[in-house]
Protein 1
Amino acid sequence: MKKRENRGTLRKLWTYLKPYRVALLILGLCALLCNAGNLLGPMLAGSAIAEAEAGMGQVNFSRVVYYAGWMLGLYVGSNLLSLAVSMGMMRLSRRVAKQLRRDVFDKLSALPVGYFDRNPAGDIISRVSYDVDVVSTSLATDITQMMTSVVTVVGSFIMMCTISLPLTCCMLVTIPISLLYTRYRSRRIRPLYARRSAAYGEMNGFVEEMFSGQKTILAYAYEEEACRRFSRSNRQAADAYNEAEQMGVVMGPTMGFINNLGLALIGLVGALLYAQNIVTLASISSFVLYSRKFSGPINEFANVINEIFSALSAAERVFRFLEEEEETPDAPDAAVLERAEGNVAMEHVRFGYVPERVVLKDLSLRAETGQTVAIVGATGAGKTTIINLLMRFYDVDAGGIYVDGREIRALTRASLRRSYAMVLQDTWVFQGTIFDNIAYGKENASMEEVEAAARAAHIHSYIMSLPQGYQTVLREDGGNISKGQKQLLTIARAMLYDTSMLILDEATSNVDTATERRVQQAMAALMRGKTSFVIAHRLSTIQEADQILVVEQGDVVEQGTHRQLMDKKGKYYQMYASQFE
């Protein structure tokens, strides 16, 4: 099974190398010429020794220098060709890695939201960076070494056969031992490298989690436990690495020992043949040099194979990621939602993130154009799930969701999502200028439009107090501004984004009470004439909503205006009383 997986991985890798097959052919020919020059060296060395042996005290040094000069020239030329091959493979591997990373990143944008809910970010990042780097390094070094090794082994074997068949037979005695040993160790090593890649992915996931929650760790004095947990994860990754490397390290010395046995056998048989004048001293010298060239790549192969298995394991993780199931494609006849009027309905919706746990059981709601619908309820009641379904981050298991009378699965996802502006509790800003962050959702937005949105969100004065104003560059995740200011930026972004529907998920949870009042006024203007879905825990912010839905355990248990629900003295009344008691 594992062999088939490796063959499948190699076939997929070849699809990335195939566009460069001409370059690979040229590099292969250069490797052939490089090794041909190296293979002629021992023959020239034998000729030089033959000249010295024939002179018997009257050595023709000019002929010896002649052969030595040719050896030097061939080795210099071969090394230059070898350098060119290495540089060529390095450039080729960088291009393959670039394409792999592009495909992985494109895949990220095509995956459903559920994939990111199920998999840690660190493991995904590990596949984009570490695993692709391992594949790239292997392409740059191991393939070159494999190409040259094949030529060297075949060429050396042919040259040894031409020098002495008896000595070649001595050399061949150790080859089956080497092959059997390599095959045995390879079977043991292959799963260890797969385990190592997985362990590194898990460790990266843990590190990413700790970085994102650093302030919480410090606030709860959890540093020692976090360090202990990291130590366990780090130890598991280190153990997986050491186990794979220890298994691999043994191969090199063992192969060297087997090859040295062959060399000792050659020395013994060669001495006997020389004593009987069957071979000359020059032939033995050349044969020994060729035998070293023959056994050297086999010995190196034992080391290279470890890196190849590591690269195959990394490539397998990357290709497995690229084969993950993407979002369900839009229906072939899916319509584009040009400009939504804002009539939204959910009818008898049933949904669960996993089949065995239903979150929404039989939920129905209706929002007319321009209405503000507030959704309240305890944590885990299903409020955010409703938003996920409205945006079609997930598809319903049963029932239907309609926009302007059309089921959203009959609309393209892109046009549906463009019809909503969102402000979430978890703010997101990217590394770039404040202007770029506010204008994120509107192409070719002018400075006047961005400033107007910032003023409406009550953050213009703060922005102007910064040295570069709207050209101030935010660090990654907005680390150089407060959380409340980040939330105001996302509110300004939503105000600039001209849509007919809004989703506000605890949109003012990170601003102070005074600012919240001003922002609520601005948002009231923003929401005028637009269908708005508001998730709120602070019930004071939704009293003017056209209808309020109280969600409990996946069902709407109460529905009405603030005054109607207060008069009923039901669940909403209890929630309101608990906040303002």
Note: The first helix runs from residue 2 to 17.
Protein 2
Amino acid sequence: MKKCLLLLVLLPVVATAQNVKIPKGANEFTYHQIEYGERNDTSIITVERNPDGSIVILNPKPEGKLIPGYCQTVTSVDYAADSITVTAYYADSAYYYRTGFSRSDLEWRHDGNRHTTSVNSNTLEFDMDEKAPVDVNPLPYYGLNKGVLRSFTRNGQKRLVLAKAEKVKHTSWETSRVWPSRRVSPRELDRIMKERLVVTTRIFDHEQICWGKKNAHIDGGLQAVPNDTVLHYAGGTLILKRVELPHLPHHYQHFVELHQQSNGDAYDRTGSLFIVTPGFFEGINNHPDSLPVFTCRDGQRYQGMMATGSYQPPIELVRFFTPFGVGHFNERMAGYGIDWRDETFYRQEITDLYRCMDGSVCIGIWIGNYDGGGHRVTVDIKSYPNDYVWEEPGEESEFPGEVVSLFNTCNVLEMAGQNYGKLFATDSLTVTFRLENISQSAELRYISTGHGGWGEGDEFVPKQNTILIDGKPAFTHTPWRQDCGCYRDLNPVSGNFWNGLSSSDFSRSGWCPGTATQPVYFDLSPWADGREHTLTVAIPQGKPVEGMFSHWAVSGVLIVEY
């Protein structure tokens, strides 16, 4: 499906602005809005001219079932009254604003029928047929009301072209519709129209993640977890909830929005938002030792971190890091000349993972801490359409592929006894995968952050991650952030040093206090031959220093599109 942000109708360009004749008494003008350069993909804008000289500008309603939040917008221009009224018509209500016609603040350059101005660093050119007997302009906000607009060009590219002018019998669109209406400002109308298109699913609402909560227990496995009930595990440092996510057409884009505040914990902590897989729930609900265990050469045991034939680790959506005490400690640290932010806000796209989420899904979030107050979090999933048309389930909205979690060493059950990802000191992480019937793509979604060891540990030393396929190096990635100083206003109780630096300023292995770590993607389609392959992650993990050890939190999700 073609993505569009406007009403798109595929039509041939039947005329150009230069050869459109305007007959006497013309009262309907059709414009083609060209989306990309000279391509013929256009949307239509229709301008109806009333006998009194006023005009009505409207986009035709798309055919078929429409998405929730769709509205018909109509712009009425009264030249005599010098007014523009924009109305958004919904199924049960309408919102409108009214403004003046002239834009006297713009500076114009005139060259015959061509008029040029600049708005927000964009050059706008209007080609007007000023000999036309009527005044018609589908872009009235710029104050040009003499003659008929033949074409509108933005930054040298045609955006709007007059395709047809004719005399027809019609009744103005808005005269046959009556709704309760409310007057709003232009910005408020824009906000209303956008917000009503967005599908929002609240996952967690100001929930506390802290140490000291009683662990829940559910008999019957993951399927027995009730809907819309927050369950606490790992002493309260991990919470989960089953939610019903909407089944939406494939053209929607999906984002996680996560708000976090300190509720008493002063330190930067690792956090993870993830999908709970059935096998991993057994470790949550019982004990990490009930998960598949990998034993390293040094005898260390690592629970539930690698996929087996019947087990998948949790599917990580967002890896995030709390800053030093934002919110709870702001007032205590007032007077430092820094305007501390009230909370940390993380926003990350998860469209590629949503395919395994729509419907009933159990989502967990963990912040590692031993503080009785801990942290407060609010999590939403917001879905944004890229088309006005709705496709029913079973049509091309279906995602022909799968999402498989291969490994996850982010120990979200840390406070229940799950080991840290220290296995790279003596071993590599190895899993198997098989790709068949791949016609589109197969990617590894990889997240990696290094931790521990103070100044000489892997948190503060760049380390190359190497991914090998069948024992041969295939990809490398060195997670490293050098912009941590940008987030100083999120860290009121970060340690401060004699030279003016704060500990939150230091560069780190793929993260900063107060940020989310972005995944990287590796193309696995060259190995889509139906055979089993091994995938190995190797990291030169540092040795323990003065009792402090280094460890790595890495997760890998296979995303396949057939």
Note: The radius of gyration is 29 Å.
Protein 3
Amino acid sequence: MNGLNSEIKENSGFSDQKEEVRSYLEKLLTVSRDPDYDRYVRQMIRDLESGKASPFQVRREAERTFRLYQQRMGARGAPAGRDTVEFKVGAGIFSVIGAVFVLVAFMIFGLNFLDGIWQGVCLYVSALLVTGISLLFTKRLGRRFSLIIMGIGTGSLFLSTVINYLVLKTINEAAACVITLVISLFAVFVSRRRDSSFLRLICILGCYISFWPIESFESELSFLFMTGIFLFVNLVSVLLPNQKNRIVVDAVHMVLHPLFSVYIAVSAVGEGISPVYPACFVLTSAAVVNVIFLRHRRDVKAWFAALFSASVAITVITLAALTGFRHGNANEMQMLYYRLITEVVAVMAAMVFFILWEKEKYRWIQYYYIVAVVVLLNGFSYFRLEKAIGIITVFLLTRILSGKKRLGVLDCILTVLAVLEGIAASSYYCETSRYIVLFFAAFLLSVFFIRQNAVFHEIAVTVFFIFCILFEFDGNWVYLGCVGLLLVLFLLFNHLPNLKGFNQLPYNIVNLVFAGLFSLTVWFCFDSVISSVTMLTGAAAIVMMFRKRYGMTVPRKYLTAAGYLTYMILTAHYESPVIVSIFLMIISIGCVGAGFRLRDKVYRISGLSMAVCVCVKMIVYDFRGLDSLLRIILFFTVGVIALGISFLYIHLERKEEKEEKMAAIAQEIPAQDFVQIKDTEIYKEGISEE
């Protein structure tokens, strides 16, 4: 800056000050490394050339803005290459390497040339010396360099604690925990004061490393003391956060904290500590993770939410492992007590954080956590009643809340789980099959709260009810029960108010396929009564299902019903062929009658064809082997039916003749006078004929 000013003063004697200022601005362009400042200097050149500003004004503005530029880019006179890779390697990496080498030298000296307690003291003195140098000479070393040295010194303090406890045996577990507490509090205070994320990460990692070698707990009191110190350190770190790179520090903390908590809990159970204490410790650790996540509730990143979900999953799996398996001499009642205590505490804690959340998007993670805890903890239970109540409770609660979009997937998962558990309770646990009543009532109640994925839930409920009938009942009545159940479910799902907005056609087709399969299996049923009732139920189902309102209209549905009845009659294993012939003739006259009513020739021809076949069957097959009384009954019944068919045809012929006469008269009468047709002689004649 001074050199540039001196050049301008030396050239001030020139008459053309405009050229001098222009030359000054061009030199500024060669010095500048900021594109925004380059554009501003070029704008000043244009103002100078156009005469919008005098050379004196431009020079003064250029000097002012150049000082601002220097402040923006760093200290005055800073070398241009300070942010290059060379500077980062030379000033950053080699500073760390040098400090580590010096620290290793002190440690080697202490371990090889000192004995007993003096080795441990030497390690601490070395670490404190490095930390003290970084604190005392911060200004001379520079902020970045001093923070690196301080981080290495702080890490050395944690490492010295581990070596003194694990290798030198100069301190016990309690002393190691207390020293770790002091070092951690110091590191938290300094990292917050210096606003250094590097020091905060060193503090978190060092705290975990110091607790890692602890391999045994003498008693529950010892476990509570050590884990209390650990949780206190983590809470202090959470409640006294840094501002710089805060989310990165929290992400590392969120990942490491549950992992290390799992390690401590598993180690405690292996040492014979009652599972209640490790479970409560894991729940407390989960609360710390929730506090970390809750702190970012106003602007949550997707990747941060994914890390939180993973931490929650680790907690749930750990709780299931701690309370699901029998430990030591604990009996089933004691394990039940452990599970119930854990569930209650977990649910209460999750509900607190659920209420504290403001955004709808992430608060439901807590609900997923509650469901996972209940399902997994009950999944390892020996008591079938406990498992049934737990799964049914979360299933119904989720179904009631299924109007929330974010619970749709969970609702489907719990539905499948409840179906499988209900089927298992019915099939594999004969002594507890009474619990199937609970699942039956739960599924029946759940259909009134379906809000999403209606077809999926309807099919699941249908499958559950069918398996219940198959496993709970024996005999040929099972086929009839399944067909009747499918018909009831069909009508229920198509008429429930909460399901009117869904497309029911896929479920209707599935229901029809199931009903058809169970109806066609009547071949394996040798009870003619059950076959007859199943036949009538299936025919009624066809007539009701094949309607426009259900989306399954088919041409000539009554003809389809007739074909179904024919199959059922032929495969119903009736004792006498006479009964089969009579039923077939009834179907034939029904087809003819339907053809008359619907004015469909196909119905009538089908009915006549069947009647002819029945008559041939009577002569060729039925007539043989019957006594005189049965022959009389057979021929009389079939004859009456045949006369009925004939009467229908005669009636149809006369009705069509009258309609033809009325149509002819209608063509001769103007349209406006057509209403007077009732006064004609033809109309009166038609009345008299009828």
Note: The longest helix spans residues 628-668.
Protein 4
Amino acid sequence: MRPRSLLLLGALAAGLAASCSLYEPDSMLGDTRVKIVLEDNAVKTRWADGDRVSAFAMDGTRPVSSYIFTASGRGKETEFFCPTGVVETTDYRFLYPADGSVTMAGDGIRATVPVSQEPVAGALAPDLFLSAGRSGGLDETVRLRPLVALVRFTLLGGAAETVTKVTLSGSAPLSGSIVFYDAETLQSAFYDTPGAEANPSNYIQMDGRFSSGGVYYAAAVPGASDMTVLVTLEDAAGHQHTIPVEHVSLRAGDITDLGTLYLGPSLVESGDLFPIMTATRGPKPIVLMFVPDGFVDGTGANSREEYVKACREGAAYIFNVEPFKSNCDRFTVYVAWKAAAEAGVGTTFGAELGVWYENYLGLRAQARQDICDFAEAICPEIREGVTEPRDMGIFLLVNGRKNYGAVCEWSEPESRNEGRFIAVLDYTGAYQYGSLPVGVIPAQWGGNTSTGPLEARTDANGNTYTYTLSETDFRELGYMNYAGSSWGYLGSWKNTLLHEGGGHGIGRLQDEYWFSTTAYTGSAVPGQTMTPPRGLNLTTTPENAPWKALLEMREELMARDPRYGRIGNYQGGYAKYFSGVWRPERAGAMNDLRPYFGTWDRALIYQRIMQMSGADPSFDVVADPADLRTFLDADLAVGGNYDPLRDKTVR
């Protein structure tokens, strides 16, 4: 980053000095010292000797003089000293840092968030974390609060070492000016100042050296609403790769994590099998493989290029959700390639894998075996005996034509592949649920009725009844739109990947939604008696649910994070039954496909990760309270209970 000039601040001081004759202060203060503390500051938490802060003496809304205070100590609360006399007044404004990014606007003090920012692994360039505060006198402690929002991302993979530029692009300004008004209103976008750096821009550009495993921060102008941010990675040869990150909130002082951006050996891959993630922790990797169906060679729509881009985006999405996010280094994820004879999968099948669909969801038994054989034959870890075929998961990405859905299938019990799963995903997202397109998920609430979606509830006598959700209910659940038949959370095929591949496939979870008023009359949930068991996220006996120990810890957990209060017993689940079966939380990925797993679902997924990676093959959160505690300690450490739809604060 080029060094910032102090000319703007110097010119401002000269101008103020020239105008001081219009203001006659009561007195001047000598040997001026003030204590300044950083508040809500997630990056710069301590002052160092020599840190400088700008100070402005105010007469109402008009600045009468400006000063530079310099830190003469270290720590969170430190004494700052100004070598010149300071006008005595009852209103001072303070801003950090004291450089050319800080100027006086007509209605406030302006700080510029630049378009060009330097990548600093694990930190933020110190002059970017703009902070401001107000004081009634120099005998008061000045408390600086952040003006900017922070964006964080992690690069992982071989190609990360080749990246020379990262561009963050949004639908609203990410850089420009922020005006500090008073102690209550800390930020407001302000754009009438000439000059490229002060004018609003919808992007931030970071040029420099990047590394695999590096965590990077950018400063951004706070926004009024969520947006999608496009992260474009570029190498020295000009090759680019773009990953969209949805539901990005930019709020002053918060850190918004864009997640881990996974890169293979290069930004432009070649070959029929290449990794986009490589395990670096654990006795053995958990191997996942994307396999295509209905994509052809070449570039553009329906092509290998589109397929590879989708695989990257899908992996980035699923591994930005806990507990996958904090355990991503236990996974190796491959992209396999097999060209189809024709683009798309219609009423006749065109891919060379020879797969034929039994119905709009399922695979024939032979087709399932063909896909397993294909993946096993090309997987290095299986050929080398590092892992077993039954321990590999397959994501079959179908380039469909409105007539395929999504499903997760397990290989037959007692077969050599028992335990292996295939998540069948219609990448086009063109198939529909009733009159609603995929991504608008009403299934939790009994379908799309004329009066609105339904929820199963229980009265004081233990009887189940249907309740029509109101707009207030939807807002409580974090939904963004409510009108007409398009109510609900608008997602994409990546939400389906998370549900099918992450929830069903790896976690062995059952569906937690329902779409008819049929009552479940079984005495147990199918799959729980199998080896390994499935469906431990549902129960027919709520008084003795698999998550009973978690419920008993609810109050203790809520004291540490109130969001653990979402744990409970809620009727409705197993794909269609509105009563007779219970789930552990009201909403989550197994319920409405949001990018969030409930606490118990996370515990079961974490258990499978420990088992599949060989870290602890006997790990059991159901039978062993110590293992449940181990998970909860890890979950609390990473803020696993964060739901991006309902929680608008930083993790």
Note: The first strand starts at residue 28 and ends at 29.
